[in-house]
């Protein structure tokens, strides 16, 4: 598992090609072994998270992007199982509201950044602005952007500026103490079809299916091109992208949970040491309690 993790990390030189990454691991541990790996790594995450919270110096931001049906929701649920809810926050971003459209496209995402000591999860993120919006440039028109009055006004330079803006935004976050991990759950088109059919057939999962998802599925090639460029243009040392095979959900869960564990171990959060004043306050409190 650890050996494979290195191959999921996208290089920072723009050479990334999505077709070079498989949507499933051909040689992988068994399902039972993957479950055991997830359980083991979650325990370590659960042990390190209180230290991050107590340290109050840094935070961890996990970004998930994928095509519909890739299993983001269930992966996040498995990842955070056992973590103190007080120390984490999860944000799912839908279509922007009227208030959000009145601000720049990063405004609502900046508001949702994790506080120091927190693990923040963004289920979809500011990358929607260079993914779904790039596939559907008509979504730019309600944003009231200067010089963008019709779709034909959107030129390649516009997207170049958005990529650069995202990179600058994430550089600022990293400099402010936020460790950033970005995951693309790489789902195959055939696997998506199977999951959609499963949702339609299962009464307990029918609520998850939206007929509009088929319209987006019809634009599969456009989405793959948008993903490839966005990931290649925005992977950086301080904000790396990982391409995670997602045709098998236990494979994707095990890989992501292991990467998060390794990142927290590298961060090595520690309990804050009390200074002289705090130590005296502890002694005074102990004395007062024993004197009751």
Please explain how this structure is put together.
Helix content is 49%, strand content 11%. It is an alpha/beta fold and 292 residues long. A 5-stranded parallel β-sheet has the order 2-3-1-4-5, sandwiched between helices.
Number of helices: 12
User: What's the arrangement of strands in the largest beta sheet?
Assistant: 2-3-1-4-5
Low-pLDDT runs: none
Largest sheet: 5 strands, parallel
Tell me the total number of β-strands.
5
Structural class, from secondary structure content?
alpha/beta
Q: How widely separated are the two ends?
A: 56 Å
Q: What is the typical, i.e. mean, pLDDT?
A: 95
Task: Report helical residue fraction.
Answer: 40-55%
Residue share in β-strands: 5-15%
Specify Rg, calculated over alpha carbons.
21 Å
SSE order, one letter for each helix or strand: HHEHEHHEHHEHHHEHH
- What does the overall shape look like? globular
Descriptive key words:
about 290 residues; alpha/beta; five-stranded parallel beta sheet; 12 helices
Tell me briefly what this model is.
The protein has about 290 residues and is of the alpha/beta class. It has helices spanning about 1-10, 30-55, 70-80, 100, 105-110, 130-135, 155-175, 190-200, 210-215, 220-235, 250-265, 275-290, and strands spanning about 60-65, 90, 120-125, 180-185, 240-245.
């Amino acid at each position: 598992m650890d050996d494979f993790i290195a191959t999921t990390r996208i290089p920072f030189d723009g050479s990334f090609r999505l077709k070079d990454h498989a949507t499933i691991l051909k040689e992988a541990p068994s399902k039972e072994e993957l479950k055991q790996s997830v359980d083991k790594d979650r325990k370590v995450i659960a042990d390190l998270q209180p230290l991050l919270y107590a340290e109050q110096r840094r935070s961890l931001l996990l970004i998930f992007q994928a095509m519909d049906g890739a299993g983001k929701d269930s992966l996040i649920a498995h990842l955070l199982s056992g973590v103190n809810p007080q120390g984490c926050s999860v944000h799912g971003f839908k279509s922007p509201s009227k208030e959000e459209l009145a601000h720049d496209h990063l405004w609502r995402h900046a508001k949702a950044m994790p506080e120091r000591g927190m693990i923040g999860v963004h289920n979809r993120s500011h990358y929607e602005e260079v993914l779904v919006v790039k596939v559907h440039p008509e979504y730019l028109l309600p944003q009231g952007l200067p010089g963008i009055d019709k779709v034909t006004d959107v030129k390649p330079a516009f997207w170049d500026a958005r990529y650069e803006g995202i990179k600058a935004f994430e550089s600022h976050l990293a400099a402010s103490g936020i460790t950033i991990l970005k995951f693309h759950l790489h789902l195959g088109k055939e696997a998506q079809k199977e999951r959609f059919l499963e949702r339609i057939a299962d009464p307990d999962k029918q609520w998850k299916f939206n007929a509009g998802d088929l319209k987006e599925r019809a634009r599969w090639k456009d989405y793959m091109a948008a993903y490839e460029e966005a990931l290649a243009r925005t992977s950086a040392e301080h904000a790396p992208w990982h391409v995670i095979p997602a045709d098998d959900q236990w494979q994707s869960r095990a890989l992501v949970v292991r990467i998060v564990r390794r990142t927290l171990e590298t961060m090595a959060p520690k309990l804050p040491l009390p200074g002289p004043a705090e130590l005296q306050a502890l002694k005074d409190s102990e004395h007062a309690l024993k004197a009751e």
